[in-house]
Specification:
By secondary structure, this protein is an alpha+beta fold. It folds into two domains: about 130 residues, Glutaredoxin (3-Layer(aba) Sandwich); about 45 residues, 2-Layer Sandwich (Antioxidant, Horf6, Chain A, domain 2). It is about 30% helix and about 20% strand. It contains six helices and ten strands; from the N terminus they run E-E-E-H-H-E-H-E-H-E-E-H-E-H-E-E. Strands 5-4-3-6-7 form a five-stranded mixed sheet. It has a three-stranded antiparallel sheet with strand order 8-10-9, with no helix packed on it. The longest helix has 17 residues. The protein is elongated and about 65 Å long.
């Protein structure tokens, strides 16, 4: 049918994040501009909406914490730069909060389509609440989608970012609810000899496949 929304290939974890070049409230931004840093790219349905306003205020308040994790923030919605600027100024005036990060003006929906932010079942012309964590090499490491009606937890993205960096640095996994300083999970053995030896390697083990350690 002529009016059907074209099918776009969804991005995949551990593959290169879709490249982009886009106009933002801080000038042109490209994915390559963030090489060497982690990038948290997040979309919202529309400017001047209450749930989105709470999220932007929360991201802005935690921007320094993301910075300490070598991460940049980059927002997006299918609104104009003028709308973004007016909304940021309104947040400053009404809520007393500066918005320190750029916001992509994605009027042609190129970035939103590339990242699978448009879900026709939710809205045909608005990006859902999607969040993407991209590593310093431009690889997509995590993505989370939320419905239009419910705001995200910024604490979770800080936690997830720290967990990803810990896994990369130490070659470990992290359990449910892990926070920096908690024990981490030792990767399970990959052969029978390693499985036999695991219980005597000095880890905190419940069984051969489930062992934790302090970093």
């Amino acid at each position: 049918m002529e009016n059907e929304t074209p099918i776009t290939r969804m991005p995949r974890i551990n593959e290169p994040a879709p490249a982009f070049e886009a106009k933002t409230t801080h000038g042109i931004r490209r994915l390559e501009d963030y090489k060497g840093k982690w990038l948290v790219l997040f979309s919202h349905p529309a400017d001047f909406t209450p749930v989105c306003t709470t999220e932007f205020i929360a991201f802005a308040k935690r921007a320094e914490e993301f910075g300490k994790l070598n991460a940049e923030l980059l927002g997006l919605s299918i609104d104009s730069t003028y709308s973004h600027l007016a909304w940021a100024r309104n947040i400053k005036e009404k809520f007393g909060q500066d918005i320190p990060f750029p916001i992509i003006a994605d009027l042609d929906m190129k970035v939103a389509q590339a990242y699978g932010m448009i879900h026709p079942g939710a809205a045909d012309t608005s990006a859902v609440r999607a969040t993407f964590i991209i590593d310093p090499e431009g690889m997509l490491r995590a993505m989370v989608y939320y419905p239009m009606t419910n705001g995200r937890s910024i604490d979770e993205f800080l936690r997830l970012l720290a967990a990803l960096q810990t896994s990369d640095e130490h070659g470990v996994a992290t359990p449910e609810g892990w926070q920096p300083g908690d024990k981490v999970i030792v990767p399970p053995p990959q052969d029978i000899d390693s499985a036999e030896a695991r219980m005597n390697e000095g880890y905190e083990c419940v069984d051969w496949y489930f062992c934790k350690k302090n970093l």
